[in-house]
Amino acid sequence: MAIFALLTLPFILIGFSVSDTALVADGLTPDHYDIARVEKILKQHDPRHLKQGQTGQLKLSEQDIDALLVTSLSPLEKAVAKTWLHDEKVVVDVSVNLPGNKYANFSLRNL
């Protein structure tokens, strides 16, 4: 997860903005099922279990990506995420509710 964050951080920062409206109005908010699913994914694909020089592959659904993002943002109140996967393209939008009825919106787009 840390590698994903490091690789996507420049793109997220480019798309980061504070607005009066949320980019994602109705996305996933984590519940106990999502948190358990994220823990299972992370345990199953822990890179420390790979042998030296071995690589791994991970296939995630839109819902899995949303759950990973929102769960990692769980210390932030009212963070919501929505992911779209279309023809090998990825769009990830996240909105975080800030004080004063403002929203931090960021988007990752693979064009």
Features:
single chain; 111 residues; alpha+beta; 3 helices; 4 strands; 33% helix
Task: Characterize the structure shown.
The chain has 111 residues and is of the alpha+beta class. It has one domain. The chain has 3 helices and 4 strands, in the order αβααβββ. The protein has a 4-stranded antiparallel beta sheet. A hairpin with a 3-residue loop joins strand 3 and strand 4. Helix 2 crosses helix 3. The protein is globular and about 50 Å long. The two termini are 22 Å apart. The model has no long low-confidence stretch (mean pLDDT 78).
The spatial strand order of the largest sheet comes to 1-4-3-2
Q: Structural class per helix/strand content?
A: alpha+beta
Give the N-terminus to C-terminus distance in angstroms: 22 Å
Overall geometry: globular
* Largest sheet descriptor: 4 strands, antiparallel
